[in-house]
């Protein structure tokens, strides 16, 4: 467990204008601990936030001043950190979390977790928190919890956790627009907000300031707008905006993110073709573009993507045949090109995918010709093959494939 000594380091307001008030209140020499806490924390949250006694900021200051058993000096670094976490807790429905809230002292019986806002525990031991050097919050990760009961909007006070590099809140109904203040977390490397309820546009411009940001997961939200062409200052490695409501074309400028390993844009309303510039992403191992309105053919330069493992383009309007260059991708594991308007034949070259490929979906296209039965049967790892809805020919090819447990 973390050492719980009181670390009295004076911390004064920073230049974060989004949470800096124009003035702070003054109190008499007989001010109560709560008065002093409000004076201290209003320098970060604004005095207006404390005028409502049910606001997350007031409840957090009240907890620090009157409830927290540590009784930390109000001007200490630890007190400010605990205040920020308490604001996070009260803003995001903490008392109604499924577990590990302040009225669940046993954290639902999990011996590896400690409930929030309870006893004299160091905040670094609270559930879902990780610290650097044992004292400073580095990560908030609720990844193992699905629908933890976290509800509401993110508080701007999070920017005071200046060492934080990961924020993971998947599968919780966090709403509103994606806060632009996330860009002020300049050490941030990972954002995971898959299956939340964010709306509006993605704040590309604001996130330029978070120059270390590499992993961005905002799939299954309600985001709208387009992907901008100006990618300067952004260098995402894993970029997931799948299953939103994005429109427009895939910008060629995405090809400038040369360190990208995963691009997931399935389930939007994107149009146009696959930019050939994406074939410059030679580290790419997952390219998922299914269920859009994309057209054209599969670029022959796809052969540049030597590390590609998952290639999903089903549910679009792609035409033409599968280029021979596609079969040269000998790391392929999951290829899905179903429900398009593809023509041509399924080539014997598919044997190049032996020992790697597990899934091939080509159903509901307009492909024809004799299937390369021997090549398909040589794919020892293949366990899911869908070919129906085409015009393939051959003697009893269905019987051969069914004998391998495929269809």
For the record, give the distance between the C-alpha atoms at the N and C termini, rounded to a whole number. 54 Å
Backbone shape: elongated
Rg measurement, Å: 27 Å
The level of helicity is 10-25%
Query: Tally the helices: what do you get?
Result: 6
- The side-by-side strand order for the widest beta sheet comes to 1-2-3-5-7-9-11-13-15-17-19-21
The strand count comes to: 22
Structural topology:
Elements: H1 33-45, H2 56-67, H3 77-91, E1 129-132, E2 136-141, E3 166-168, E4 175-177, E5 190-192, E6 197-200, H4 204-207, E7 215-217, E8 222-223, E9 238-240, E10 247-249, E11 262-264, E12 269-272, E13 286-288, E14 293-294, E15 310-312, E16 319-320, E17 334-336, E18 341-342, E19 359-361, E20 368-370, H5 373-377, E21 384-386, E22 391-393, H6 397-403
Parallel strand pairs: 2-3, 3-5, 4-6, 5-7, 6-8, 7-9, 9-11, 10-12, 11-13, 12-14, 13-15, 15-17, 16-18, 17-19, 19-21, 20-22
Antiparallel strand pairs: 1-2
Helix pairs in contact: 1-2, 2-3
């Amino acid at each position: 467990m973390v050492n719980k000594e009181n670390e009295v380091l004076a911390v004064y307001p920073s230049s974060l204008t989004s949470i800096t008030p124009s003035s702070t209140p003054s109190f008499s020499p007989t001010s109560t601990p709560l008065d002093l806490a409000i004076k201290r924390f209003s320098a970060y949250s604004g005095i207006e936030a404390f005028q409502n006694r049910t606001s997350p900021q007031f409840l957090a200051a009240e907890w620090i001043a009157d409830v927290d058993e540590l009784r930390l000096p109000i001007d200490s670094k630890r007190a400010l950190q605990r205040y920020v976490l308490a604001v996070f807790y009260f803003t995001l429905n903490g008392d109604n979390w499924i577990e590990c809230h302040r009225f669940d002292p046993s954290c639902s019986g999990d011996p590896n977790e400690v409930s929030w806002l309870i006893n004299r525990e160091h905040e670094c031991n609270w559930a879902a928190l990780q610290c650097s050097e044992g004292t400073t919050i580095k990560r908030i990760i609720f990844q193992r919890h699905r629908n933890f009961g976290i509800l509401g909007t993110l508080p701007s006070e999070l920017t005071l956790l200046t060492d934080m590099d990961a924020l993971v809140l998947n599968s919780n109904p966090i709403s509103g627009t994606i806060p632009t203040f996330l860009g002020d977390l300049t050490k941030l490397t990972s954002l995971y907000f898959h299956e939340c309820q964010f709306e509006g546009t993605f704040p590309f411009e604001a996130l330029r300031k978070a120059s270390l940001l590499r992993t961005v997961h905002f799939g299954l939200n309600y985001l709208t707008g387009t992907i901008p062409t100006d990618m300067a200052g952004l260098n995402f490695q894993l970029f997931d905006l799948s299953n939103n409501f994005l429109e427009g074309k895939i910008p060629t400028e995405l090809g400038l993110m040369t360190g990208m390993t995963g691009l997931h844009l399935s389930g939007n309303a994107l149009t146009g073709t696959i930019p050939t510039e994406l074939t410059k992403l030679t580290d790419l191992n997952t390219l998922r573009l299914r269920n859009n309105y994309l057209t054209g053919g599969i670029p022959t330069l796809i052969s540049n993507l030597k590390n590609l493992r998952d290639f999903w383009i089903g549910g679009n309007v792609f035409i033409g045949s599968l280029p021979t260059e596609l079969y040269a991708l000998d790391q392929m594991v999951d290829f899905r090109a179903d429900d398009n308007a593809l023509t041509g034949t399924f080539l014997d070259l598919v044997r190049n995918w032996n020992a790697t490929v597990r899934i091939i979906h080509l159903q509901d296209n307009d492909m024809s010709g004799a299937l390369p039965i021997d090549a398909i049967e040589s794919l020892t790892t293949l366990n899911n093959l869908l070919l129906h809805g085409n015009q393939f020919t051959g003697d009893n090819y269905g019987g051969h494939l069914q004998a391998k447990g495929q269809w």
